[in-house]
From TrEMBL:
Keyword Cytoplasm belongs to the record: yes
Task performed by this protein: Kinesin is a microtubule-associated force-producing protein that play a role in organelle transport.
Primary location class: cytoplasm
Subunit structure: Oligomeric complex composed of two heavy chains and two light chains.
Pfam family, one: TPR_12
Taxonomic superkingdom: Eukaryota
Name recorded for this polypeptide: Kinesin light chain
Organism: Rotaria sordida
Length: 519
């Protein structure tokens, strides 16, 4: 009785049509394994119920949402009092939210809250839990002002009802940080996440899953601020904890792999990115229902890597799979749908199918104008992409108008050396170059290059884009030696950062050959 094993290794063996999994176990116990003991004690504190309630809570903690739902539904049907019914409604809301079924989740939460309003005093901690969960749900469907309102209501109740380092305070700070992060208010998000982490370090054992969540979310903010080396460190710390604390196919492990992949993608390390993303999608296929939004995110991110590698048919396939899932799982004006339309537009843009690209970019902008605040960075992205298409279609005044609108938003929303500002200056330079206004083009391209030198690692593909663009201007001005100098810098970086068959490598090779002929 009470024998405990650590899973050291799982090896899959194929015997004909039968798959066998060989599992290497190490005998341990909570008496001689300090990490296991601390985590076990914490789990016992968190799962305070008994019988079937305890089983349902444990299944949810282990990521077994479907099984936990069956237990909670059975308990609700046999509930003996209103207090228990409120608890079961709340738990079913959590489970439905975890499955991506947000409309069903909100109904369960509202049922729980209605009972609490009749049976509990106004500042009871259970109210804080309900408002927190409703706020988290609004966050998941992109209704950020409603989310913030509910989460702040929860926080105010907890300030009255709980001691200052209670883990529920950490949850409040964490969830408020998530909303600020998605609203593009990164300094506020980072402040909330760091406060959450401080409390969790005091209140929880060192390998508790909630600590992993804090490290993960801090990584998310640094990622969104384009500080990729800073993002990688907390992401990796989060993954370390989750490998210890969670079962091997828990959805949170998939999230960690996904986020590490996102960093590698931005750093131009595409093979590492693809490896991390594919591990993430393997776990999510096992752990989540087939139309869960997180699966859509995995396919979306795999599409991003293939797009960056120049493998456009693979990119389009992944993006379209992501969009299919999001149409089923999300409300019609959710920012996630806008992201899918935008990314499909990018592939068509890269394939030279500009009318298709414009259609997808405009659909993305329509959703973002409804769903996001007026100076959100994603709006700038939409205007930037629409401007780039108009430039390729030769409609230069429309292109400049869109690109300058994008730049205005970015100057308000982003730090002064953010890579997106560099992209805007680069694209404005492209319009002036195509219009034959080479001095204006050179000025914009050089401003873009200055920012990228500060913001990006030395062999990032976007630096090569800047060098190549400046080379094009010098070639058009007849300054061929300067053009060659910039082309060769671009070629050197692209050879180091892109696969050998990437279109950009072929492009710069042609540019070098053409300028040498003219010299």
């Amino acid at each position: 009785m009470h024998t405990v094993f650590r899973v050291q290794q799982i090896k899959e063996i194929q015997e004909g049509e039968m798959t066998i999994r060989q599992v290497k176990l190490t005998l341990t116990s909570d008496s001689d394994d300090q990490q296991l003991n601390a985590l076990t004690q914490r789990m016992r504190q968190e799962i305070t119920s008994t019988g079937w309630e305890r089983m349902g809570a444990l299944l949810w903690k282990l990521g077994e949402s479907d099984k936990a739902e069956k237990v909670c539904t059975m308990l609700l049907e046999h509930a003996s009092n209103e207090s228990s019914r409120a608890g079961y409604y709340n738990n079913l809301g959590l489970l439905k939210g975890n499955q991506g079924k947000y409309n069903e989740a909100v109904k369960f939460y509202e049922n729980s809250l209605n009972i609490q309003e009749k049976t509990l005093p106004r500042n009871h901690p259970d109210f804080a839990t309900s408002y927190n969960n409703i706020g988290s749900l609004y966050y998941n469907v992109g209704e950020y002002s409603k989310a913030l309102s509910s989460l702040e209501r929860s926080f105010e109740i907890r300030k009255i009802a709980l001691p200052p380092n209670h883990p529920d305070f950490a949850t409040s700070y964490n969830n408020i940080g998530m909303v600020y992060d998605d609203m593009g208010e990164y300094s506020k998000a980072l402040s909330s996440y760091e406060r959450s982490l401080e409390i969790r370090k005091i209140a929880l054992p060192p390998n508790h899953p909630d600590l992993a969540s804090s490290y993960n979310n801090i990584g998310v903010v640094y990622y969104n601020m384009d500080e990729y080396s800073k993002a990688l460190s907390p992401y990796e710390r989060s993954l370390e904890i989750r490998k210890i604390a969670l079962p091997p196919n828990h959805p949170d492990l998939a999230n960690s792999c996904n986020n590490i992949g996102m960093v590698y993608n931005k750093m131009g390390e595409y093979s590492k990115a693809l490896s991390s993303y594919e591990r993430s999608v393997e776990i999510r296929k096992i752990a989540l229902p087939p139309n869960h939004p997180d699966l859509a995110s995995s396919y979306n991110n795999i599409g991003m890597v293939y797009n960056n590698m120049g493998e456009y048919s693979k990119a389009l396939s992944s993006y379209e799979r992501s969009l299919e899932i999001r149409k089923i799982a999300l409300p019609p004006n959710h920012p996630g749908l806008a992201g899918s339309y935008n990314n499909i537009g990018l592939v068509y843009y890269n394939m030279g199918e500009y009318s298709k690209a414009l259609s997808f970019f405009e659909r993305s902008l329509e959703i973002r104008e409804i769903a996001l605040p007026q100076n959100h960075p994603d709006l700038a992205t939409s205007y930037n992409n629409i401007g780039s298409v108009y430039n390729k279609m030769g409609e230069y005044s429309k292109a400049l108008s869109s690109l300058e609108r994008s730049l205005e938003i970015e100057k308000i929303a982003l730090p002064p050396n953010h890579p997106d500002l560099a992209s805007s200056y680069n694209n404005i330079g492209s319009v002036y170059s195509d219009m034959g206004e080479y001095s204006k083009a050179l000025s914009s391209y050089e401003r873009s290059l200055e920012i990228r030198k500060i913001a990006l690692p030395p062999n990032h593909p976007d630096l090569a884009t800047s060098y190549n663009s400046i080379g094009v201007v010098y070639a058009n001005m007849g300054e061929y030696s300067k053009a060659l100098q910039y082309y060769e810098k671009a070629q050197d970086i692209w050879k180091k950062s892109l696969p050998s068959n990437h279109p950009d490598i072929a492009l710069v090779k042609r540019n070098i050959e053409n300028v040498k002929k003219k010299m």
